[in-house]
């Protein structure tokens, strides 16, 4: 099942809500799942999944969609996620020169210069600005989570 945006899901919800009451019945939801090949569940199984509700409002529909994504993923991407996490940990170690679990602006500057990605005259000021952009706890350095967020945001 591919991921849809909030706006996509809202449009789908509005199309399913034929009477405009702000609710989608489980029959309509089951019809959608059947037509899109999203699931081969019975109406009773669907009721159990939505805890006995007979219809869903938009927020419940969005929650249902998210939960269906998690069920359908069923760990398929787990290996890929672990590989990315491992690669990021190795990259973090390259920048964490003193091994204290943090990347300072000095460490960043040193590694970027060694890699030829930072000009000699572009000193610590640029590196401090880079660190501050992703330093969510404002301690002046990047921990692994902040580094990971930076890398995910700049590569996606």
TrEMBL record:
UniProt-listed InterPro entries: EF-hand-dom_pair, EF_Hand_1_Ca_BS, EF_hand_dom, EF_hand_pair_protein_CML-like
Superkingdom of source: Eukaryota
Key words of the record: Calcium, Metal-binding, Repeat
Official protein name in the record: EF-hand domain-containing protein
EF-hand domain location: 4-39, 83-118, 122-156
Organism this protein belongs to: Arachis hypogaea
GO molecular function: calcium ion binding
PANTHER family from the UniProt entry: EF-HAND CALCIUM-BINDING DOMAIN CONTAINING PROTEIN (PTHR10891)
PROSITE patterns reported for this sequence: EF_HAND_1, EF_HAND_2
